Amino acid sequence: AQSVAQPEDQVNVAEGNPLTVKCTYSVSGNPYLFWYVQYPNRGLQFLLKYITGDNLVKGSYGFEAEFNKSQTSFHLKKPSALVSDSALYFCAVRFTSGGSYIPTFGRGTSLIVHP
Amino acid sequence: EPEVTQTPSHQVTQMGQEVILRCVPISNHLYFYWYRQILGQKVEFLVSFYNNEISEKSEIFDDQFSVERPDGSNFTLKIRSTKLEDSAMYFCASRMGSHTEAFFGQGTRLTVV
């Protein structure tokens, strides 16, 4: 069964500092990996995805994520955090064959960027 | 930019009543989903719909739930007899094809009293 874990409920970072939001997945095939962001009382907004190719993928608002197959991780990163990045971040995984095509979400990580 | 739209944004209903949550997916998308998020908890998959039929559903999606795509544009989720524990934010999503991401609507906050 596919699963995804976000080990941190909350990440605190000072504005201007780099940020990392962690995600690991359990694999029984080749994964498609996604990051979504949710602002208060809003829907899920797509940030970026890894399907195939370069392990480092770039997405919206200056975010990027690195696919690491050996560590089964897909951590979200940004070189310089903004206060406006404060939101709830969800990692999601979907398998490409031999498994469910349904995106499965992690529990979410609350990112708080302090001025 | 095309988007998934959901109505209403907030619905309050009495326990035991039927509710219908409405979604208009992006027009050229082929795969449709309903998810829910109980306050403060994870986003949970309910059901997926493709080619006019349910393709997969979770344990949450019991006989109280049904989905329909009545007219080629709307995608609805019906809860026949609501329970207090159905109170949650319900998200509709759609995607175009196998290599694409899902786009989510803004959600409908369902409150069962």
Q: Runs of chain A with pLDDT <50, length 5+?
A: none
Radius of gyration of chain B: 13 Å
**What CATH architecture of chain A do you see?**
Sandwich
Number of alpha- plus pi-helical segments of chain B: 0
Count of individual domains of chain B:
1
The end-to-end span of chain A amounts to 41 Å
What is the H-and-E element order of chain A?
EEEEEEEEEEEE
* SSE series of chain B: EEEEEEEEEEE
Q: What is the fourth-level CATH superfamily of chain B?
A: Immunoglobulins
Helix content of chain B: under 10%
**Overall 3D shape of chain B:** globular
Number of separate strands of chain A: 12
- Assess the beta-strand content of chain A as a share of residues: over 45%
* Total number of helices of chain A: 0
Mass-distribution shape of chain A: globular
CATH topology grouping of chain A:
Immunoglobulin-like
Query: What's the CATH H-level superfamily name of chain A?
Result: Immunoglobulins
The pair of chains with the biggest contact is: A-B, 21 and 24 residues
* Number of structural domains of chain A: 1
Summarize the structure.
The complex is a heterodimer of chains A (115) and B (113). With 115 residues, chain A is mostly beta strands. Chain A contains no helices and twelve strands.
Q: Would you kindly provide a written description of the structure presented here, covering whatever features stand out?
A:
The complex is a heterodimer of chains A (115) and B (113). Chain A is an all-beta fold. Chain A has a single domain (3-114), classed as Immunoglobulin-like. Chain A contains no helices and twelve strands. In chain A, strands 2, 5, 6, 10, 11 and 12 form a six-stranded mixed β-sheet that branches. The model of chain A has no long low-confidence stretch (mean pLDDT 90). In chain B, strands 2, 4, 5, 6, 9, 10 and 11 form a seven-stranded mixed β-sheet that branches. Chain B has a four-stranded antiparallel β-sheet with strand order 1-3-8-7, with no helix packed on it. Chain B has a single domain (5-112), classed as Immunoglobulins (Immunoglobulin-like). Chain B has 113 residues and is mostly beta strands. Chain B is 0% helix and 50% strand. The interface between A and B is medium-sized, with 21 and 24 residues.
